[in-house]
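Lecture 7 notes: from sequence to structure.

We start with a single chain of 98 residues. Read the sequence below before looking at the structure.
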Amino acid sequence: MVVDLDNWAADVLRNRRWHPSQQVIEMPDGAMQVSFQLDNLEEVEQWVLSWGIHATVVRPKILADRVQATARGILQRYAESGTRQEPPDQKEFRLKGH
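Now the structure, written as tokens:
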């Protein structure tokens, strides 16, 4: 499995070992590419999702597809729940007497 990490995630992960099979390629721009030899997609899927927008699955495609499906599900859940609303009117934040 291969995952690209942007500069922010690379700074956090740099010099840490997440898995014994971990191999790191440092990129000139400060980002990094991390590869693992794993048998369990669920474990690495959760790890990738924990990095949010800072990680991109390069391969395998099935892992990239699973992460993308989860991201779509999250977006759909928030859209359906009505949490995507305009900011409340400032009057709601005024304290009585002010």
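The CA atoms of residues 79 and 85 lie 9 Å apart. Keep this in mind for problem set 3.
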